[in-house]
Amino acid sequence: MSEPRGAGRRDRRDRRDRCEPRDRRKPREPRESREPRESRERREPREPREPREPREPRPITHRAGATTTTTTAALALALALACLFACGAPRPPDERPPESLLELVESSPIETALDHPDLRDAFEVWPEMIGRARRGIDAAQFYVSNAPGSRLEPVVAALEAAIRRGVAVRLLVERSFEKVYPDTLARLRVAGAAVRGLDFAATAGGILHAKYFVVDGREAYLGSQNFDWRALEHIQELGARVRVPAVVGGLAAIFAHDWALAAGESPPGEHPPTAPPPAPAPGARSPIAPPPAPRAPTAAPPPERNAAQIRLVASPERLLPPGIAWDLPRLIELIDRARRRVRVQLLTYRAGDRTGAPWTELEEPLRRAAARGVRVELLLASWSKRESTIGGLQRLARTGGIEIRIITIPPWSGGFIPFARVAHTKLLAVDGSAAWLGTSNWEQDYFYRSRNVGLVIEDAALAARVDRFFDTGWSSRYAERLDPDATYEPPRIQ
Question: What's residue 286's pLDDT?
């Protein structure tokens, strides 16, 4: 005869109970007989039970002799290991990958092949940043120039929308250009923005040439783009959206300093300068410049992949808030560290001061690099064909190991546009492992008399991307090798 239904299960329970300690055994109550299915369906529904108090889960333990394993602890350990292997070890807040702290942003002239699909354009990024503002936007710009239907119009509209939702917008511009381009500034004043013009010539003998803005003290943008509709459509540019707290805080400190100067107030923690700082005497070296003897190349420190690899630099030295490095010595240091290749792209380069006297603080490191076998490549905009700059470039091009090319952006099919159709990017790439991008052309006044800002990037992945950006222009059909003996016609600019 077959065993009654359920007998096997009862036997297994009996055997299990006999293996457990006697004090854990509980008498089994007789099992109630089941009702037929039909009677269960006809039964009246029960009253809902009151919810029970939640009980803390008790860990289930399995005993085998003297060994005890806690299932809850085992599950926790397994989950932790799974997260470790799937997600990677957690990073402290200041050790996020640099790629998440900096986004390279370009502007490419329309009707050219200089666009990079993996880089977003400034006309896309700027309204996005402004649209996320909740407290304040502080912008320092050389000037502001808009045109109906241009790519800058959504940026201006985004600033107006930010003001309507209660965001405090402050705009600082170079006073000498305030009268040249007054319309958009007047429009933003009417919308409720606070606008000041800074006479940097009276302050330091130069201009407010920096181009940056800070949003809510949490992110910032800086780069070669002016707040100019042409910079978003007809000029090649490179900048960066930055979320590094030290960089954002440094730009906020520079803005607070210059905002106070524009109103004739004392900058935070100091007194305003009474006279422009003197520039170096003709042919003199600055106290920070390295000795003329070649330096042995030093290996770059191993990457730590944190925010310290992206640092803010600025000029002029005399008007820097505490903790912000002067850009000129950092550029010299990067060039002197080069072991294989130095690549520089600029609007203009000049190894002389405003009087025509030699100024070689950046040219000497380039020559030293070439002398020790480093390949030096300079890509200059067509505006460098002017008389004030072309002669010095041709002399430098005669140096062995240094090659110079001129990049010329073709005219727009719609006609001539003043102060446009030019490569305006300012960058330095060293060995594909370090880079600088900023707002300074490489002329003496930009470092000693004018306000400029930049970033030194010591992350290999980001620096390599800057290097590839350079290569696009260097290898393009728009670039031609500079002939040291040729006669060049200055381009039409306005």
Answer: 45
Query: pLDDT category, 5, cuts 50, 70, 90?
Result: very low
Inside any domain, residue 156 = yes
What local confidence, expressed as pLDDT, does residue 95 receive? 53
Q: What is the DSSP string of 50-79?
A: PPPPP-PPPPPEEEETTEEEEHHHHHHHHH
Domain that holds residue 182: 97-297+305-481
pTM over 0.90: no
Chain center to CA of 376: 25
Of the candidates 423, 354, 427, the one whose C-alpha atom is nearest the C-alpha of residue 383 is: 423
Phi-psi region of 322 (alpha: psi -120 to 50; beta: other; left: phi over 0): beta
> Rounded to whole angstroms, what are the CA distances from 238 to 165, 210, 359, 425, 455?
30, 14, 26, 5, 12
Specify if 263 maps to a domain: yes
Measured distance CA(225)–CA(223) in Å, rounded? 6
Residue 80 lies in a domain: no
Measured CA to CA, the distance from residue 76 to residue 91 in angstroms comes to 20
Runs of H (alpha helix) within 378-456: 387-397, 444-448
- Residue of 358, 284, 345 whose CA lies nearest to 475: 345
Within 8 A by CB and 6+ apart from 158, the residues are 126, 127, 130, 131
Return the minimum-mean-pLDDT range out of 39-43, 140-144, 349-353, 388-392. Answer: 39-43
**Number of structural domains the chain divides into:** 1
- Would you say residue 464 lies in a domain? yes
The CATH number of the domain where 107 resides is what?
3.30.870.10
Q: How many helices (H) and strands (E) does the chain have?
A: 14, 22
Q: What is the reported pLDDT for 297?
A: 34
- Express each pLDDT in 442-452 by its tens digit: 999 999 999 99
- Residue 63's DSSP bridge partners are 68
**Residue 378, strand partner residues:** 344, 404
Lookup: tokens for 32: 């109630």
CA dist list (Å): 217 to 244, 251, 252, 256: 10, 9, 7, 12
Helix (H) or strand (E) holding 224: none
pLDDT score, position 294 = 35
pLDDT-derived band at 314 (thresholds 50, 70, 90) equals very high
Helix %, strand %, coil % of the chain (to 5) = 35, 20, 45
Only one residue has tokens 């290991």, namely: 81
C-beta of residue 428 within 8 angstroms of C-beta of residue 331: yes
Which amino acid belongs to residue 378? L
Tens-digit pLDDT profile for residues 56-109: 444 434 444 444 444 444 444 444 444 433 344 444 444 556 668 999 999 999
Q: Which amino acid is at 35?
A: E
Residue 125 near residue 221 (C-beta atoms within 8 A): yes
